[in-house]
Write a structure and sequence with these properties.
- The structure is a single chain.
- The protein is an alpha+beta fold and 164 residues long.
- Helix content is 37%, strand content 15%.
- The chain has six helices and five strands, in the order αααβββαββαα.
- The chain has a five-stranded antiparallel sheet with strand order 1-2-3-5-4, sandwiched between helices.
- A hairpin with a 3-residue loop joins strand 1 and strand 2.
Length: 164
Amino acid sequence: MERLWAPWRMQYIEQGGRVRECLFCELPAQLKDEENFVLYRGETGFIMLNSFPYNSGHLMVAPFKHTADMYELEDDELLEISHLIRYSVRLLTAAVQPDGFNLGMNLGRSAGAGVADHIHWHIVPRWNGDTNFMPVTAGTKVLPESLRSTYDKLKKKMEELGAP
């Protein structure tokens, strides 16, 4: 029997998928970007790895402003968020060569938002054939790379590509 090891998932399981504080406010405020997997800070928003990813390389883009309402974001904030999403696609394309992407956001808990009080966008790289028997029969997703390895790979590629 083969064993799958994904120790970072236990934190998610123990929390029941919930976070106590707003991770999009708390983690950037700590100024521990490498530890918290924050890849890039802009003027009004940032890019970070999802600690509970759907796929390796799953990024999130969020404004620094704590809001769940798109209408509370100023035009410059929305513009920078759009640039960060576009850059995230470029970065992942260069670093991990996915066959496609899921880009999106969930507005409100009923729409599937795990953190409903702070608007954020997901950038999920996808590969042909990345669905196999594990998610279908066991409800389990196997991630072939640690978060630290993914972070290091993306930071290195960012040095080559330059800032957004």
